[in-house]
Design a protein that fits this description.
Catalyzes the decarboxylation of carboxynorspermidine and carboxyspermidine. Belongs to the Orn/Lys/Arg decarboxylase class-II family. NspC subfamily. Its cofactor is pyridoxal 5'-phosphate. Helices cover about 30% and strands about 25% of the residues. With about 375 residues, the chain is of the alpha/beta class. Strands 1, 11, 12, 13, 14, 15, 16 and 17 form an eight-stranded mixed β-sheet that branches. Strands 2-3-4-5-6-8-9-10 form an eight-stranded parallel β-barrel, surrounded by five helices. Helix 4 links the parallel strand 3 and strand 4.
Length: about 375
Amino acid sequence: MDFQVLKDSVYSSPAFVLDETEAAKALAMLADLRNQCGCKVLYSIKALPFSAVLDMAKPFVDGFSASSLFEARLAGEVLSGQGSIHLTTPGIKTDELDELSLLCSHISFNSLTQYQRYAETAGALTSIGLRINPKLSFLHDDRFDPCRQHSKLGVAIEELSRSIGLDQIQGLHIHNVFSSTDFTPLIKTVEKLQHYLGIGLAELEWLNLGGGYLFGQIEDHRPFIELVKKLKNDFGLEVYIEPGKAIVGQAGHLVATVIDRFVSDGETIAILDTSINHHPEVFEYQRQPELHEHDPDGQYSAILAGCTCLAGDVFGKYCFKAPLAVGDKVVFNNVGAYTLIKANRFNGYNLPDIYVSNSLRVKKLKHYDYQDYRRQWLAD
Protein backbone atom coordinates (compact mmCIF):
# COMPACT_ATOMS: atom_id res chain seq x y z
CA MET A 1 0.00 0.00 0.00
CA ASP A 2 1.28 3.45 -0.95
CA PHE A 3 0.69 5.33 2.29
CA GLN A 4 1.15 8.72 0.66
CA VAL A 5 -1.72 7.82 -1.66
CA LEU A 6 -3.72 6.83 1.41
CA LYS A 7 -3.19 10.28 2.87
CA ASP A 8 -3.47 12.29 -0.35
CA SER A 9 -6.53 10.57 -1.83
CA VAL A 10 -9.90 12.17 -1.37
CA TYR A 11 -11.08 9.90 1.42
CA SER A 12 -13.82 11.08 3.68
CA SER A 13 -12.51 10.76 7.21
CA PRO A 14 -12.49 8.56 9.16
CA ALA A 15 -12.11 5.82 6.57
CA PHE A 16 -11.50 2.10 6.65
CA VAL A 17 -9.48 1.16 3.57
CA LEU A 18 -9.23 -2.43 2.38
CA ASP A 19 -6.06 -3.08 0.36
CA GLU A 20 -7.14 -5.52 -2.34
CA THR A 21 -3.56 -6.27 -3.32
CA GLU A 22 -2.57 -7.32 0.20
CA ALA A 23 -5.67 -9.49 0.67
CA ALA A 24 -5.15 -11.15 -2.73
CA LYS A 25 -1.52 -11.84 -1.82
CA ALA A 26 -2.58 -13.60 1.40
CA LEU A 27 -5.26 -15.60 -0.42
CA ALA A 28 -2.87 -16.68 -3.18
CA MET A 29 -0.33 -17.82 -0.59
CA LEU A 30 -2.95 -19.95 1.15
CA ALA A 31 -4.12 -21.40 -2.15
CA ASP A 32 -0.53 -22.38 -2.92
CA LEU A 33 -0.22 -23.97 0.51
CA ARG A 34 -3.40 -25.92 -0.19
CA ASN A 35 -1.92 -27.19 -3.46
CA GLN A 36 1.26 -28.31 -1.72
CA CYS A 37 -0.34 -30.39 1.04
CA GLY A 38 -3.97 -31.00 0.13
CA CYS A 39 -5.55 -29.14 3.04
CA LYS A 40 -8.81 -27.31 2.53
CA VAL A 41 -9.01 -23.59 3.32
CA LEU A 42 -12.00 -21.84 4.87
CA TYR A 43 -12.14 -18.09 5.42
CA SER A 44 -13.22 -17.39 9.00
CA ILE A 45 -15.68 -14.61 8.32
CA LYS A 46 -15.86 -13.42 11.93
CA ALA A 47 -12.63 -11.48 11.25
CA LEU A 48 -14.31 -9.26 8.62
CA PRO A 49 -17.61 -10.39 7.06
CA PHE A 50 -17.81 -7.53 4.57
CA SER A 51 -19.23 -8.84 1.29
CA ALA A 52 -16.36 -7.43 -0.78
CA VAL A 53 -13.96 -9.60 1.23
CA LEU A 54 -16.13 -12.69 0.87
CA ASP A 55 -16.42 -12.17 -2.89
CA MET A 56 -12.67 -11.68 -3.13
CA ALA A 57 -11.94 -14.81 -1.08
CA LYS A 58 -14.45 -17.10 -2.78
CA PRO A 59 -12.24 -18.17 -5.76
CA PHE A 60 -9.31 -18.98 -3.45
CA VAL A 61 -11.00 -20.94 -0.66
CA ASP A 62 -13.10 -24.07 -0.21
CA GLY A 63 -15.76 -22.29 1.79
CA PHE A 64 -16.29 -20.19 4.90
CA SER A 65 -16.38 -20.87 8.62
CA ALA A 66 -19.13 -19.29 10.67
CA SER A 67 -19.96 -18.80 14.34
CA SER A 68 -23.64 -17.85 14.23
CA LEU A 69 -26.83 -18.07 12.20
CA PHE A 70 -26.34 -14.62 10.66
CA GLU A 71 -22.78 -15.44 9.60
CA ALA A 72 -23.98 -18.73 8.11
CA ARG A 73 -26.75 -16.92 6.21
CA LEU A 74 -24.29 -14.41 4.77
CA ALA A 75 -21.86 -17.18 3.85
CA GLY A 76 -24.65 -19.04 2.10
CA GLU A 77 -25.67 -15.97 0.11
CA VAL A 78 -22.14 -15.41 -1.16
CA LEU A 79 -21.29 -19.05 -1.83
CA SER A 80 -24.61 -19.92 -3.51
CA GLY A 81 -23.87 -23.60 -3.01
CA GLN A 82 -20.31 -23.36 -4.33
CA GLY A 83 -18.39 -24.28 -1.18
CA SER A 84 -18.77 -25.63 2.33
CA ILE A 85 -19.84 -23.79 5.48
CA HIS A 86 -18.44 -24.97 8.81
CA LEU A 87 -20.04 -23.86 12.06
CA THR A 88 -18.72 -24.03 15.58
CA THR A 89 -20.13 -21.94 18.41
CA PRO A 90 -21.11 -22.27 22.07
CA GLY A 91 -24.31 -20.41 21.23
CA ILE A 92 -26.59 -22.73 19.21
CA LYS A 93 -30.25 -22.00 19.94
CA THR A 94 -32.94 -24.62 19.56
CA ASP A 95 -35.08 -22.46 17.28
CA GLU A 96 -32.12 -21.89 14.93
CA LEU A 97 -31.01 -25.49 14.58
CA ASP A 98 -33.14 -26.43 11.57
CA GLU A 99 -31.92 -23.48 9.52
CA LEU A 100 -28.31 -23.97 10.59
CA SER A 101 -28.53 -27.62 9.54
CA LEU A 102 -29.76 -26.58 6.10
CA LEU A 103 -27.12 -23.89 5.69
CA CYS A 104 -24.04 -25.62 7.10
CA SER A 105 -22.22 -28.57 5.57
CA HIS A 106 -20.39 -29.20 8.87
CA ILE A 107 -21.37 -28.46 12.48
CA SER A 108 -18.91 -28.98 15.34
CA PHE A 109 -20.82 -28.98 18.59
CA ASN A 110 -19.10 -27.19 21.44
CA SER A 111 -20.08 -29.56 24.24
CA LEU A 112 -21.30 -33.09 24.82
CA THR A 113 -24.61 -31.69 26.07
CA GLN A 114 -25.07 -29.80 22.80
CA TYR A 115 -24.19 -32.95 20.90
CA GLN A 116 -26.67 -35.05 22.87
CA ARG A 117 -29.40 -32.44 22.42
CA TYR A 118 -28.97 -31.63 18.73
CA ALA A 119 -26.88 -34.19 16.85
CA GLU A 120 -29.72 -36.50 15.88
CA THR A 121 -31.71 -33.65 14.32
CA ALA A 122 -28.78 -31.97 12.60
CA GLY A 123 -27.07 -35.18 11.52
CA ALA A 124 -29.63 -35.93 8.85
CA LEU A 125 -28.52 -32.88 6.89
CA THR A 126 -24.96 -32.05 7.89
CA SER A 127 -21.64 -33.63 8.88
CA ILE A 128 -21.40 -33.73 12.67
CA GLY A 129 -18.27 -33.06 14.72
CA LEU A 130 -17.15 -31.92 18.15
CA ARG A 131 -14.91 -29.06 19.18
CA ILE A 132 -12.11 -30.39 21.36
CA ASN A 133 -10.30 -28.61 24.19
CA PRO A 134 -6.83 -30.18 23.97
CA LYS A 135 -5.90 -28.71 27.37
CA LEU A 136 -2.73 -27.16 25.94
CA SER A 137 -2.24 -23.44 26.56
CA PHE A 138 0.23 -21.46 24.50
CA LEU A 139 -1.04 -17.99 25.44
CA HIS A 140 -0.18 -15.95 28.51
CA ASP A 141 -3.35 -13.86 28.38
CA ASP A 142 -6.49 -15.68 29.52
CA ARG A 143 -8.66 -13.34 27.46
CA PHE A 144 -7.42 -15.07 24.32
CA ASP A 145 -6.81 -18.59 25.63
CA PRO A 146 -9.42 -21.19 24.60
CA CYS A 147 -7.71 -23.63 26.98
CA ARG A 148 -7.88 -21.40 30.04
CA GLN A 149 -9.10 -22.98 33.26
CA HIS A 150 -12.88 -23.44 33.31
CA SER A 151 -12.93 -22.87 29.55
CA LYS A 152 -16.28 -22.68 27.82
CA LEU A 153 -14.75 -23.74 24.49
CA GLY A 154 -14.82 -27.39 23.56
CA VAL A 155 -14.99 -30.86 25.08
CA ALA A 156 -11.99 -31.67 27.29
CA ILE A 157 -9.86 -34.17 25.43
CA GLU A 158 -9.79 -36.67 28.31
CA GLU A 159 -13.58 -36.47 28.57
CA LEU A 160 -13.98 -37.15 24.86
CA SER A 161 -11.86 -40.27 24.96
CA ARG A 162 -14.01 -41.84 27.68
CA SER A 163 -17.47 -40.48 26.80
CA ILE A 164 -18.10 -41.04 23.12
CA GLY A 165 -17.06 -43.39 20.35
CA LEU A 166 -15.42 -41.70 17.38
CA ASP A 167 -17.62 -43.79 15.11
CA GLN A 168 -20.56 -41.65 16.31
CA ILE A 169 -19.20 -38.44 14.78
CA GLN A 170 -17.60 -37.48 11.49
CA GLY A 171 -14.98 -34.97 12.61
CA LEU A 172 -13.17 -32.93 15.25
CA HIS A 173 -12.39 -29.23 15.51
CA ILE A 174 -9.44 -27.78 17.44
CA HIS A 175 -8.43 -24.14 17.95
CA ASN A 176 -6.17 -23.09 20.82
CA VAL A 177 -3.94 -20.22 19.61
CA PHE A 178 -4.23 -16.57 18.62
CA SER A 179 -1.99 -14.74 16.12
CA SER A 180 0.66 -17.46 16.23
CA THR A 181 3.74 -17.04 14.04
CA ASP A 182 5.02 -20.54 14.72
CA PHE A 183 3.62 -24.02 14.00
CA THR A 184 4.98 -25.58 17.20
CA PRO A 185 1.63 -25.26 19.05
CA LEU A 186 -0.18 -27.02 16.21
CA ILE A 187 2.33 -29.87 16.09
CA LYS A 188 2.16 -30.36 19.87
CA THR A 189 -1.64 -30.24 19.82
CA VAL A 190 -1.93 -32.89 17.10
CA GLU A 191 0.59 -35.05 18.96
CA LYS A 192 -1.60 -34.89 22.05
CA LEU A 193 -4.67 -35.68 19.97
CA GLN A 194 -2.94 -38.75 18.57
CA HIS A 195 -1.79 -39.81 22.05
CA TYR A 196 -5.36 -39.82 23.35
CA LEU A 197 -7.19 -41.09 20.29
CA GLY A 198 -4.56 -43.13 18.45
CA ILE A 199 -5.72 -45.11 15.44
CA GLY A 200 -9.25 -44.08 16.33
CA LEU A 201 -8.61 -40.95 14.27
CA ALA A 202 -9.00 -43.16 11.21
CA GLU A 203 -12.69 -43.58 12.10
CA LEU A 204 -13.21 -39.87 11.39
CA GLU A 205 -13.76 -38.23 8.03
CA TRP A 206 -12.26 -34.82 8.78
CA LEU A 207 -10.18 -32.77 11.18
CA ASN A 208 -10.50 -28.98 11.38
CA LEU A 209 -7.25 -27.46 12.67
CA GLY A 210 -8.94 -24.11 13.30
CA GLY A 211 -7.41 -20.69 12.87
CA GLY A 212 -5.07 -18.45 14.80
CA TYR A 213 -1.97 -18.97 12.66
CA LEU A 214 -0.60 -15.98 10.71
CA PHE A 215 0.61 -17.97 7.71
CA GLY A 216 1.95 -14.92 5.90
CA GLN A 217 4.28 -14.15 8.81
CA ILE A 218 5.66 -17.69 9.05
CA GLU A 219 8.63 -18.18 6.71
CA ASP A 220 8.89 -21.97 6.78
CA HIS A 221 5.65 -23.77 5.96
CA ARG A 222 7.26 -27.20 5.70
CA PRO A 223 6.26 -28.33 9.23
CA PHE A 224 2.63 -27.56 8.43
CA ILE A 225 2.79 -29.26 5.03
CA GLU A 226 4.37 -32.39 6.52
CA LEU A 227 1.79 -32.47 9.33
CA VAL A 228 -1.16 -32.28 6.95
CA LYS A 229 0.27 -34.92 4.63
CA LYS A 230 0.82 -37.24 7.58
CA LEU A 231 -2.73 -36.79 8.84
CA LYS A 232 -4.10 -37.50 5.38
CA ASN A 233 -1.84 -40.49 4.71
CA ASP A 234 -1.97 -42.15 8.15
CA PHE A 235 -5.66 -41.63 8.93
CA GLY A 236 -7.37 -40.78 5.63
CA LEU A 237 -8.57 -37.46 7.04
CA GLU A 238 -9.79 -34.42 5.13
CA VAL A 239 -7.90 -31.59 6.83
CA TYR A 240 -9.33 -28.06 7.10
CA ILE A 241 -7.87 -24.77 8.28
CA GLU A 242 -9.89 -21.61 8.85
CA PRO A 243 -7.69 -18.48 8.77
CA GLY A 244 -9.31 -15.09 9.30
CA LYS A 245 -6.80 -12.53 10.48
CA ALA A 246 -4.18 -14.25 8.29
CA ILE A 247 -6.19 -13.11 5.25
CA VAL A 248 -7.40 -9.61 6.16
CA GLY A 249 -5.30 -8.51 9.12
CA GLN A 250 -2.62 -6.71 7.14
CA ALA A 251 -5.03 -5.62 4.43
CA GLY A 252 -6.95 -3.06 6.49
CA HIS A 253 -6.04 0.56 7.31
CA LEU A 254 -7.85 3.19 9.35
CA VAL A 255 -7.36 6.73 8.07
CA ALA A 256 -8.10 9.56 10.51
CA THR A 257 -7.71 13.33 10.64
CA VAL A 258 -6.46 15.53 13.49
CA ILE A 259 -9.35 17.81 14.48
CA ASP A 260 -7.83 19.42 17.57
CA ARG A 261 -4.44 19.83 19.23
CA PHE A 262 -3.59 21.13 22.69
CA VAL A 263 -1.26 20.57 25.65
CA SER A 264 -2.37 18.73 28.79
CA ASP A 265 0.02 18.40 31.75
CA GLY A 266 2.98 18.94 29.46
CA GLU A 267 1.95 16.43 26.76
CA THR A 268 0.59 17.28 23.32
CA ILE A 269 -2.86 15.77 22.77
CA ALA A 270 -4.09 15.27 19.21
CA ILE A 271 -7.82 14.58 18.95
CA LEU A 272 -8.76 12.47 15.94
CA ASP A 273 -12.06 12.19 14.10
CA THR A 274 -12.04 8.46 14.81
CA SER A 275 -12.11 6.70 18.18
CA ILE A 276 -11.18 3.43 19.78
CA ASN A 277 -14.81 2.51 19.22
CA HIS A 278 -13.81 1.99 15.58
CA HIS A 279 -11.04 -0.33 16.83
CA PRO A 280 -12.42 -1.69 20.12
CA GLU A 281 -9.59 -4.15 20.81
CA VAL A 282 -7.36 -1.16 21.59
CA PHE A 283 -9.42 -0.62 24.74
CA GLU A 284 -10.43 -4.23 25.35
CA TYR A 285 -6.87 -5.49 25.43
CA GLN A 286 -5.03 -2.20 26.18
CA ARG A 287 -3.20 -2.51 22.90
CA GLN A 288 -1.38 0.30 21.07
CA PRO A 289 -2.01 -0.04 17.33
CA GLU A 290 0.70 0.43 14.75
CA LEU A 291 0.79 3.92 13.23
CA HIS A 292 2.38 4.51 9.83
CA GLU A 293 3.67 7.98 10.76
CA HIS A 294 5.32 6.90 14.01
CA ASP A 295 9.09 7.47 13.99
CA PRO A 296 10.92 6.15 17.07
CA ASP A 297 13.58 8.83 16.51
CA GLY A 298 11.06 11.62 15.96
CA GLN A 299 11.58 14.69 18.11
CA TYR A 300 7.88 15.57 18.40
CA SER A 301 5.53 13.40 20.43
CA ALA A 302 1.78 13.41 20.78
CA ILE A 303 -0.87 11.32 22.46
CA LEU A 304 -3.43 10.33 19.84
CA ALA A 305 -6.91 10.31 21.34
CA GLY A 306 -10.37 9.62 19.99
CA CYS A 307 -13.23 12.10 19.80
CA THR A 308 -15.62 10.52 22.31
CA CYS A 309 -16.13 11.52 25.94
CA LEU A 310 -14.64 8.24 27.23
CA ALA A 311 -11.50 9.18 29.19
CA GLY A 312 -9.76 6.02 28.03
CA ASP A 313 -10.46 6.71 24.35
CA VAL A 314 -6.72 6.86 23.67
CA PHE A 315 -4.66 5.09 20.99
CA GLY A 316 -1.29 5.81 22.60
CA LYS A 317 1.73 8.06 22.51
CA TYR A 318 3.62 8.32 19.21
CA CYS A 319 6.66 10.21 17.89
CA PHE A 320 6.80 12.25 14.69
CA LYS A 321 9.38 13.99 12.51
CA ALA A 322 7.33 17.19 12.58
CA PRO A 323 4.62 18.48 14.91
CA LEU A 324 1.11 17.30 14.16
CA ALA A 325 -1.26 20.04 13.03
CA VAL A 326 -5.03 20.24 12.77
CA GLY A 327 -5.99 18.79 9.39
CA ASP A 328 -3.12 16.26 9.23
CA LYS A 329 -4.03 12.69 8.34
CA VAL A 330 -2.66 9.64 10.12
CA VAL A 331 -2.99 5.96 9.20
CA PHE A 332 -3.31 3.01 11.56
CA ASN A 333 -1.90 -0.13 9.91
CA ASN A 334 -2.86 -3.81 10.05
CA VAL A 335 -6.37 -3.24 11.36
CA GLY A 336 -8.24 -5.45 8.90
CA ALA A 337 -9.40 -8.02 11.44
CA TYR A 338 -11.80 -7.54 14.36
CA THR A 339 -12.21 -3.80 13.82
CA LEU A 340 -15.29 -3.06 11.71
CA ILE A 341 -17.06 -6.14 13.03
CA LYS A 342 -16.73 -4.77 16.59
CA ALA A 343 -17.07 -1.07 15.75
CA ASN A 344 -19.87 0.96 17.28
CA ARG A 345 -21.38 4.46 17.27
CA PHE A 346 -20.78 5.37 20.91
CA ASN A 347 -21.60 9.05 21.54
CA GLY A 348 -23.38 9.06 18.18
CA TYR A 349 -20.16 9.33 16.19
CA ASN A 350 -20.56 7.71 12.80
CA LEU A 351 -18.86 4.54 11.61
CA PRO A 352 -16.01 4.98 9.10
CA ASP A 353 -16.71 5.01 5.40
CA ILE A 354 -15.38 1.86 3.74
CA TYR A 355 -13.13 1.93 0.68
CA VAL A 356 -11.38 -0.66 -1.41
CA SER A 357 -8.06 0.28 -2.95
CA ASN A 358 -5.39 -1.14 -5.21
CA SER A 359 -2.67 0.30 -7.44
CA LEU A 360 -5.23 1.35 -10.04
CA ARG A 361 -8.26 2.61 -8.17
CA VAL A 362 -9.86 3.82 -4.99
CA LYS A 363 -13.56 3.06 -4.63
CA LYS A 364 -15.99 3.90 -1.85
CA LEU A 365 -18.11 0.86 -1.00
CA LYS A 366 -20.09 1.93 2.04
CA HIS A 367 -21.27 5.09 3.76
CA TYR A 368 -23.37 5.22 6.91
CA ASP A 369 -25.57 8.20 7.69
CA TYR A 370 -27.87 9.53 10.37
CA GLN A 371 -30.72 7.32 9.19
CA ASP A 372 -28.65 4.20 9.97
CA TYR A 373 -28.04 5.52 13.48
CA ARG A 374 -31.70 6.51 13.84
CA ARG A 375 -32.99 3.09 12.70
CA GLN A 376 -30.78 1.40 15.26
CA TRP A 377 -32.22 3.36 18.19
CA LEU A 378 -35.84 3.98 17.27
CA ALA A 379 -38.27 1.47 18.75
CA ASP A 380 -39.90 -0.74 16.15
